[in-house]
Specification:
- The complex is a heterodimer.
- By secondary structure, chain A is mainly beta.
- Chain A is built from five helices and 28 strands.
- In chain A, the strands form seven sheets. In chain A, strands 1-28-27-26 form a four-stranded antiparallel beta sheet, with no helix packed on it.
- Chain B is mostly helical.
- Among the domains of chain B are: about 180-220, no CATH class; about 320-355 and about 380-440, no CATH class.
- In chain B, strands 1-2 form a two-stranded antiparallel sheet.
- Chain A: Keywords: mRNA processing, mRNA splicing, Nucleus, Repeat, Spliceosome, WD repeat.
- Chain A: Associated with the spliceosome.
Amino acid sequence: MTDNFDELYMNLRWRNQFGNMSVLPRHVQQEIDCSKGVLQRYDEFQQQLKRGQLNETTSLVKFDSGSQKSAQLLDKVYQEQAGSNILGRQQQVLLQRPDWHAPWKLMRVINGHRGWVRCVKVDPVDNEWFATGSNDSTIKVWDLASGKLKVTLQGHIMTVKDIAISTRHPYMFSASEDKLVKCWDLEKNMVIRDFYGTLSGVYSVDVHPTLDLIVSAGRDSVVRIWDIRSRTCVMTLAGHKGPINKARCLAVDPQVVSCSTDATVRLWDITAGKTIKTLTHHKRNVRDITFNPAEFSFTTACTDDIRSWMLPKGQLLTNFQSDSLGIINSLSCNQDGVLFAGSDDGHLSFFDYKSGHKYQSTQTIEVPGSLESERGILASCFDATGLRLITCERDKSIKIWNQDADASPETHPSLPWDPTIVSQRF
Amino acid sequence: MVPPSSLSSLLPEPKQKTKSDASLDGYPVNAEGQDNLPVVGLIFDSLQPELSPVVSFSDFVPLRQRNFNMEIPLPTQQQIDDTNKRTKAFFQALLLKKSNPAGSKIKRNESSGNSGYIEYRSKNLLSANSESTPHLIKVVDHAADPLHLSNFKIRSVYAPPIDEPPAPILHKTDANLSKEERQKWEIPAAVSSWKNPNGYTIGLDKRVALDARYSDSRMGAHDINEGFVRLSEALGEADRKARQELKLKAEARKQLAEQESKMKEEQLRMLAQRAKEEREKKRAERFSGNIIHDEAARERAIKRDERRKEAEKDLNLSKLSVVDKLKALAHTQGRDISEKIILGAAKATEVSELQYDSQLLSRGANAAVKRSEDQLYDSPLFIQEAISSIYRPAKFGEADNSSQQIIESINGEARFEELNSKRARIESSQQNRETPHNADSELGKKKQRH
């Protein structure tokens, strides 16, 4: 025992006195490392592994190469699929190169609404005009090229929350907080149908691309499917546990996708009247859905969290670099793989759709005469060509943005791309 | 990062324990071989409670991290057409069903107006033998206004309950708040110290809680610094001393003032004494100058003086008016009588009826009890008659010259008796002429006389 104590004491003294000398300073170590050969380095790596010093990975599961148990677990998870463990995935992520996109700049500011502008849709047929709905309960139709007001549609008595323009009829549908969905005839500029029966404010409306149906959803937390001709509510899709922010239609299953304040996104089977899948990855109020026009996927956003999903099953596709974005009110996607996210505090963020890389972040400038706190993007929309972005803002203005034509990757490099495996969020 | 065991904590609690495979059928299982996707198995099977939603690790891993250049083609026209066909057929059927539901038939006017007749035979109980009398009863449907609003209020049921297996929650829920944190967020119920229309009993603790004066920090034990105690004691002592000093000073000043006043009095008295002595000396000198020797002459002179004084007094009295005479008389008799009573102008208030003390008539002993809400005092300040006399013009015209008039009348009573009576007659005739009614009546009288 005494020998043992002696030895312990010696060790302790030695470590206290000369411990700092056992490790070389970093810059010296680096120089020594540089002069080492490949084989030498591999040997050191192996030794480190044995000692268990390589624990500082950001891996989800603690990886212990020596242990039989963890190897079994890995086998079970990945079913012996080579290269798809965490390290493999990290390498894959590092290999990804996001596309370069030209930065966006403000092109035009349109004033005219007397309240917050809440929604916007571009004419899907000719791409010549766009319509905006506002808190002043009007819908205004503007010329896209010149930005001039074409017509003001009055009929709602409360905020117009959403607009849908049909590609197959000369109809426009508008949803309002006054519990009504109105059908406007764009040839006569008149209301021709009212869809009664919603119990509370309607927040969203969309036209079915191939059928004579419209889908509305709102505060009463059910999605309603209406027959356009007979004005009857054909089906009610219940399942959300909170007000529904957006409901969107697709031509194939799932034909309705809705997102709600209960932090879920639901894909609906409208022939069965049931939810196909509930996406519960989001933590908070999911405020917007946008479909990618170039591929069969869609994107949803909640506070600080944008994710894209593969259709038709709804698997997670990408986590966007969307930390610290704040409340995201609006999402838009164009054909070139640009995803736009408009924040509640007036920040515009542009993402590369495929990689989830945020390549540009700017802020709107409030219209002279409005407060700085009135910066805020409420709705957005790309035009049919995807070259112009229309944003509706809290300062009652509509802003049109386009890409800088002179920009090149050299002159306008995008924001740095440093992917982390941490991009799997919970 | 999250260790794998915490994934199971993301799952909701199992709702029911009974196992039924049928309910799992429609459930999306993530393992799949199609679409060239990596086949991913389920993990933590043994950890999962029965019938809880199936979660796999792949749910958390973005697909593009595994296969970056994955192509996701848009639906083909064929797919769209197929879906369209299927959905269209379904919705057409649904619409048809909706437009005329199976249960309801179109009610025609005739059917609703169709009235049936019922023959009703009542048995007459009193006359057992007699035949029952038949009654014909017509049954008519109650006409309902089709446009009338429904009597049943549409209850806005938000988020109707649905029968659906619970979805796995794939995000981290915020950690449960601790009790302290929850208490921090608790907002006390609004309790007003001024309004309580329903008269609820409000607990003392609630009252204390809502009163800012009695916050927790203040209600705690008071730790008063020793210095404060000493300071307050010292202040009290200083105060007492100052008061005492002031008192002494005031007393001294008072004594000084008394002494001074005494001195002055003394001086004055001395002066008066000296003046008196001087006057005595002078008089003595005068008397010593012309001494009346005759005793009788002296007596006569005194008497003469007295008589002269009396005559002067009488003269003065005769010059006085009646009022002054009476006053003087009263004064001599030692009585103090006001002018009005002397002149007979003040009379006792004439009260036709008997007067009672109002307090005697009031109920019971407590006369001070109020009889109505408007009553401020327990007894009226004026009796009703007195009020009526107060607000009438005085009988003697203006109060100031009333006494003069009276004096005049007293003076000239005897002399102008005839004149007064004549004037009265003229006035009365004038009055009669003024009012047409009176004139008429007089005319009537004259006619009667004629």
